[in-house]
Amino acid sequence: MGDTVIRRRTGLLVHLAGCLCLFVLSCGIPSNTYRLTKGTIKTTYAVTKGATKAGIGTGKVVYKVGQFTFKVVMAPLSWPLTHEEIESINDLPPKEAIRQGRVKNAPYVVLGRRYVPMSVEAARTYREQGTASWYGNETLRQKGGHMTANGESFDPTGLSAAHKHLPLPTYVRVTNLENRRSIIVRVNDRGPFVKGRIIDLSAGAARKLGFYKQGTARVYVETIDVKA
């Protein structure tokens, strides 16, 4: 008698659990998707590359990733950094580290605090949800140009981003969770150094994602697979 009751109760619990699973799946709760860090289906994007002449730095390389185009120009070392509060990179003066090409995932110091970026391998599975902000319009009002933390010419109207821990450069897909717009950006700078923010986008990227006027937005950031 006791075994029969236990089997019936167990069967009922399994049935209820199955119904609950069906209910959750049918609701399609978005937040569950963005909590996943493993097993997410990723698309591999083909990267095409073309070199052209440019009037500054060492020339321009144009990358095509999916439907997005990135014009990469190395800045003259005389240009100031977008984040001049960076004190050192790889224990060297920032511009010397940039000149030597020692910035990809090198530790760096900002206002006395040391940041240690993740490895290239760890970056491949990076996903995070949080607050994004944007920067760059102020550079348009200043004479000359500015360079990012990896030595590229900063274009506030382009599709780039600053991140504290990803290797430079890295391509990531950013989705605005408020309106579901999604774009790919090139992470080529360090920041944001404001508590509670996970990524700083160029003004151009913020416009594409629809949060330029409000200043910040809740976003989901994930690295993408690229194949030359």
Report on the structure:
The protein is of the alpha+beta class. It has a domain at 76-227: RlpA-like domain (Barwin-like endoglucanases, Beta Barrel), CATH 2.40.40.10. It has helices spanning 2-27, 30-34, 94-99, 120-123, 137-140, 203-209, and strands at residues 44-52, 60-65, 68-73, 86-89, 108-110, 113-115, 127-135, 160-162, 170-176, 182-189, 197-202, 216-223, 225-227. The strands form three sheets. Strands 7-11-8-10-9-12 form a six-stranded mixed beta barrel. A hairpin with a 2-residue loop joins strand 5 (108-110) and strand 6 (113-115). 29% of the residues are buried. The model is unreliable at 1-41 and 51-57 (pLDDT under 50).
Quick overview of this protein structure:
The protein is of the alpha+beta class and 228 residues long.
Please describe the structure with a list of short key phrases separated by commas or semicolons.
single chain; 228 residues; alpha+beta; Barwin-like endoglucanases; six-stranded mixed barrel; four-stranded mixed beta sheet; 13 strands; globular; disordered N terminus
Q: What is the annotated CATH architecture of the domain at 76-227?
A: Beta Barrel
Principal-axes geometry comes out as globular
Number of beta-strand segments: 13
Distance between the termini: 67 Å
Oligomer: single chain
Topology:
Layout: H1 2-27, H2 30-34, E1 44-52, E2 60-65, E3 68-73, E4 86-89, H3 94-99, E5 108-110, E6 113-115, H4 120-123, E7 127-135, H5 137-140, E8 160-162, E9 170-176, E10 182-189, E11 197-202, H6 203-209, E12 216-223, E13 225-227
Parallel strand pairs: 1-13, 7-11, 8-10
Antiparallel strand pairs: 1-2, 2-3, 4-5, 5-6, 7-12, 8-11, 9-10, 9-12
